Amino acid sequence: MSDTHAREDSLRRSLGLNRRQFMAATTGMAAAAAIPLALPGAAQADPAPVRDERSALVPASQRGIILYTVRDAISRNPLTSPLPSGFRKVFEALSAIGYAQVEFAGYTQNANSEGGANLETVEGAQLLRTWLDDNGLKAQGNHGFIPGSWPLSQADLDRFQRTLEIANIIGMQHIGTGSDPTSSNFKADWDVAIEKWHALGQLAQAAGLKLYTHNHDAAYNFLLDSGPLDAQGRPTRSSGIRKLEYFLSQTDKHLIFLEMDLFWAHVAQYKHTLFTAPDGSVQTDIFDPFTLVRDNQKRYPLFHVKDGKLNPATANGYDMVPFGTGDIGYKEFFNRVKIRDKHHPMYEQDNAPGGTANPAQSLDFARLSYENWAAMKEDRFYE
């Protein structure tokens, strides 16, 4: 068996697919040799396939990836591995696959990579911008520092201003965080978070950037804002509004933006369906993430396109899988929310790294996911 076929079989088994399912997931390629995987020493050199993009559901210019997906490659020691290591080589590999945009998840890499361990400096940001430009990549955002305290301390203010400066050097349009505005269920805490985010949003706007929050399923649970109070004087029931919907309704549309992770939004659809109304009755409400985005498109400049395979045996209802191999209706989503230059979807897969058993897996999955994404066509396309 050739190395390429062995790699295909390993990748197929890790996805839990039979050969026919695997071939379908990779857009029906005739042979595994036609699937350009991230082979040692070659991933950054493989040319991107030539495709007819006229009917693409998402333009090639808008297909991005959050670097958290390939964090193992970024942190890999280039002295001990032939695989792409560090930001510069990973950018080369992602550009060769076809990605046009990236979202950062911090600015650290292996200390032996070019530029050193920490690039969260003016000099480091200048290096990153050079490497992005060299590979035709555009940075759109970062999951970085948002002050936890309110009011802001001088130290928090100084660090946030440095975060904005670095984002501008790198050439971003957005700056954000991977966390909810608050983890609390109570309206009073969300009101404090709203005040803080407005202040931060004004600072970001002054720097020419859009501030955004990225959210997991908990943010789509129901806000405790009514009913009898508990022993600490906090409400115990809900009017039926979800926490993030309240945040959305109470924040300035010109200052505060959001990044929906479609996987976690579907987990919320699965998990957060019941609330206790002010009169004590239990009500059912099924979350529709597609409609929320459609009705607030200007508030959602970024998305995480993370796929999931239905699995009712798990608490979340889904298992994370490479894009295009799961059950989340991305074709429907992209048909309802047209992706052009105002939207920036980023492929993400939290469990992409394969560890020592399969150190190339995250880049393999990045390539497989890109191929599946590129194969998605508009429902109607006319010559």
From TrEMBL:
InterPro entries in UniProt: IolE/XylAMocC-like, TAT_signal, Xyl_isomerase-like_sf, Xyl_isomerase-like_TIM-brl
Domain called Xylose isomerase-like TIM barrel: residue spans: 91-341
Pfam families tied to this protein: AP_endonuc_2
Signal peptide location: none
UniProt cross-references to Gene3D superfamilies, sorted A to Z: Divalent-metal-dependent TIM barrel enzymes
PANTHER family referenced in this protein's UniProt entry, alphabetically: HYDROXYPYRUVATE ISOMERASE (PTHR12110), INOSOSE DEHYDRATASE (PTHR12110:SF41)
Name of protein: Xylose isomerase-like TIM barrel domain-containing protein
Organism: Acrocarpospora pleiomorpha
Taxonomic classification: Bacteria, Bacillati, Actinomycetota, Actinomycetes, Streptosporangiales
